[in-house]
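Reply to dn_fold:

You asked what the input looked like. This is it:
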Amino acid sequence: MEYRYNTNISDYKFSVSDLALTRQQQDFYEVNGYLVIPKLIPDYLLDRCCNRFMDLCYDRVPRNQITMMKDISRMKVGGQGEYLFAKAQDLLWDEEFYEYARFPKMLDYIESFIGPNVMAMHSMFINKQPDIGTNSSRHPVHQDLHYFPFRPANLIVAAWTACVPVTVDNGCLYVLPGTHTGDLYPHNYPEPKYGEINKMYHEAKISNDYDDHKKVFLEMDKGDTVFFHPLLLHGSGINKTQDLRKVISVHYASSNCHYIDVSGTTQDNIKNEIIDVMAKKGIRNVDYTFAWKHRCRLIRGVKANLLDIGYNYNYKQKKLSVDTGLGSGHFDSDDNANWQLLVTSPAKRINSPGTSPNPKISNNKNISL
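and this is what came back:
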């Protein structure tokens, strides 16, 4: 029998149902903006994710669309393999990591926060390096919404799971409870005097408003998972041990969310930084939302506004194969790096009102599917 739950709870702003949450858990999340669930993810699944990351570090498997990000300090001293890479991103089209993103018990919690139509929007395996005295292993205090060109914020939630025990010593997550009820702050790189910083590790430029908010350090055992709101101020300290601190995380959003134009806002800097990274990969003349549509994936329910694009980019052929959910095809680039979508098969499903079953997009300087 299908489980039915109350979707008309009017008391809560930051969760939508009691599918997996108790009243006490909803109360806690409402006030604090985060919630830790012990031993949610089984060891075998986390071990598979750790092994996959190792395979990627040592080129034992193709990386495909996964982005491997190096620790800036380790790179300078010639680090290799797992002692070079700080993070793997865009994991959702890798079937090993996908098993984490779609783990049913976790999705029940996700559905409780954001509703039944669940898109996984951002994914990463974080491999915090033992710090070598440069402070590069830290992640300054920040809000995840700074990176996201979609809203509303209350229909977005992060899942962050410890793959090994995480402690204050190895740089566990810390949170500032209750800050999810505030505004999105401007972010930028911290001042160099505080040490080296990895790419896109921006810091919230907060005032003294939160001097009275004490950090809560979330020490967690393997399999423990913390869910948190995208406006919650949080970060992590340096890894003072000699062991690698491994975590896997996915941000989820309701497919009923919508993309926004962040141009001219405090998010302009991260938008431009990501577009520059895409250009270096040969993907030019696309807008910021393209970066998100290619990395997201429907996990549960139906698509609505947040369409995903499954893709593979062939650098030699300058061809980007895509599946938009409306039809599949590829982008070709000419010498001027203008992209053209050539649809090669008809639509299999249409879930968004007003879309055409035969989209034709050619020579657009801003491609928005």
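The first strand starts at residue 34 and ends at 37.
Hope that clears it up.
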